[in-house]
Design goal:
single chain; about 550 residues; alpha/beta; FAD/NAD(P)-binding domain; Flavocytochrome C3, Chain A, domain 1; Methane Monooxygenase Hydroxylase, Chain G, domain 1; 3 domains
Length: about 550
């Protein structure tokens, strides 16, 4: 038995909490239900409607809420005269640190320009150069200017506006303020729809219903809220990952959480969503400095301040650990106030709102949880291992992002995967099948435990980790009570999902004794060739998590290890 298999097999399997489901009061039927209304979910719904499929979008908040509107940088695509697809592929593979699926990366790069063109056809107001072509900028890890943006630093908001308008114009059904609780499943394990509920006052769940569908597409985003401070909005609690796991799907690379290096530091007690300062600021020439004005990244990497995000975040974290400082600083003063106001109006306003002026002083920044490179194991067409269940966008692990996402590949991947998934379901939509009524018993997590879960995850599974801390995190999470009779409301759904993803994150990070991409172990600082594998998790019939390894190259020689 290899060291990889032995190590994981030695870990006690974790137990995942479940939800006590309310009885459905009514039933609705559609062809496809899309859960989530970020870029991936909206594009999936629009493309399916254009193919003549009946679509219902389920979203926890308002239409378009989620992480996409907060994205500042833009979309990566080969559009410049000095660029080519091989360079974009190479940059993505280098950033992914050996865990990218190269065929998926090549598909993304090849289809990215068409996805950008479709956005423009749908009415996206992209920033243009003097020739009327999309203006391009550079971010960390890119060897060429290839980031398409809008509104200076409001790219995600423009993508959301464009796709939401396209959705409304097509008359697609939308259930806002509605939460997906669990998948409806057949006797042989297929997904046949969702148990849903409307979110009422104070987070109460009302009007539970069964939404039957021929296919369910998860586009629910990540789980940044499992950390005390994050760039993610309040709804990014991992609901889709937890639902998929309970539905029989596999999750992969959950330990690979990307921390954005330049999140505005607003104090040591900061909690929840924090202001992000786009990597594009460094692409335009801003630099990271310490309290004395000395550059942090000079000599740390050949690309200095434009090194991949994992490198920059780890360098900052190591500096803070060594010096005891609370933060480092981003110095953009030399770019000039006029340029900053035009290129980064949202960032300038956010800094001023927090009491800092990007144009006149170095502003304090720290790394914070930003993007999940892992998720529901799926191909770039959205297929999971469960018939009838699909996943696109950040909730999915397609192999595109690898061990560290290349900047601005995320919205691009969401759009490309959405278009491919919709194309698949336009021609290969499963039949509508009867389901077995789900049981009402469940052992959920009490919302009162959320602060303990997020604090422990932040303390022990941040940018820099070690075995002792991860072991303590696993013990803390295992000790959280899964009590029958916990009232089901939105807070319970979200904390139960957070506990699930934190449990998998801790187990996987502890199992991987190396540093690769955005997984950095202080007690194992080097990458190890034998760990160029995915850690793939599923639930067994007793609710315990089982893990297998999948070699990145071709997925052959899989071994069940726990």
């Amino acid at each position: 038995m290899s060291e990889v298999v032995r190590r994981i097999a030695s870990l006690a399997p974790s137990v995942v909490a479940t939800l006590p489901l309310p009885a459905a009061e009514r039933e609705e039927v559609t062809d496809v239900v899309v859960v989530g209304s970020g870029a991936a979910g909206l594009m999936t719904a629009v493309a399916l409607a254009e193919a003549g499929r009946a679509v219902t979008v389920v979203t926890k908040g308002e239409l378009g809420a989620g992480s996409t509107p907060w994205a500042q940088g833009g979309l990566a695509a080969v559009l410049g005269d000095d660029d080519d697809a091989e360079l974009h592929v190479r940059d993505t593979l280098v950033a992914g640190a050996g865990l990218c699926d190269e065929p998926a990366v090549r598909a993304l790069v090849a289809e990215a320009p068409e996805a950008v063109a479709e956005l423009q056809e749908l009415g996206a107001r992209l920033d243009l150069d003097d020739d009327g072509r999309p203006a391009l900028t550079r971010e960390g890890g890119h060897s060429r200017d290839r980031i398409v943006h809008a509104g200076g630093d409001a790219s995600g908001a423009e993508v959301t506006r464009t796709l939401a308008a396209a959705l409304r114009a097509r008359g697609i059904a939308v259930l806002e303020h509605t939460v997906a609780l669990d998948a409806l499943r057949t006797a042989d394990g297929r997904v046949a729809g969702l148990r849903i509920a409307r979110i009422g006052d104070g987070g109460a769940l009302v009007e539970p219903a069964d939404l039957r569908a021929r296919a369910v597409v998860l586009a629910t985003g990540g789980f940044g809220q499992v950390f005390t401070a994050t760039t993610n909005p309040a709804g990014a609690t991992g609901d889709g990952l937890a639902l998929a796991l309970r539905a029989g799907a596999e999750l992969a690379d959950v330990e690979l959480v990307q921390f954005h290096p330049t999140v505005l530091w607003t104090g040591s007690g900061a909690e929840g969503q924090q202001p992000l300062i786009s990597e594009a600021a460094r692409g335009e020439g801003a630099v990271l400095v310490d309290g004395e004005g000395r550059r942090i990244m000079a000599g740390a990497h050949p690309l200095a301040d434009l090194a991949p995000r994992d490198v920059v975040s780890a360098t900052i974290a190591a500096h803070l650990r060594a010096t005891g400082a609370d933060c480092v600083h981003l110095d953009a003063r030399h770019l000039g106030a006029d340029f900053l106001e035009v290129r980064f109006p949202g960032i300038v306003a956010a800094c001023r709102g927090a009491g800092f002026d990007l144009a006149t002083e170095p502003v304090p920044v720290v790394p914070a949880a930003h993007y999940v490179c892992g998720g529901v194991l799926a191909d770039l067409d959205g297929r999971t291992g469960v018939h009838g269940l699909y996943a696109v966008g950040e909730v999915a692990c397609t192999g595109v992002q690898g061990a560290n996402r290349l900047a601005s590949n995320s919205i691009t991947e969401g759009l490309v995967a959405a278009r491919r998934c919709a194309g698949l379901l336009a021609t290969e939509l499963p039949p509508l099948v009867p389901f077995v009524a789900p049981g009402s018993a469940g052992h959920a997590i009490d919302p009162a435990d959320r602060p303990f879960i997020t604090a422990a995850t932040t303390r022990h599974a941040g940018v820099l980790r070690d075995a002792d801390g991860l072991t303590e995190l696993a013990r803390t999470l295992a000790a959280v009570d899964r009590a029958p009779g916990t009232p089901l409301d939105l807070a319970t759904v979200e904390v139960t999902a957070l506990h699930t993803v934190a449990t998998l994150l801790a187990a996987a990070a502890l199992a991987r004794p190396e540093s690769r991409g955005c997984h950095r172990r202080l007690d194992a600082p080097e990458a190890r060739p034998e760990w160029q594998v995915r850690l793939v998790h599923r639930l067994d019939r007793t609710g315990h998590v089982r893990t297998r390894t999948v070699p990145v190259q071709d997925g052959a020689d899989e071994q069940v290890v726990a």
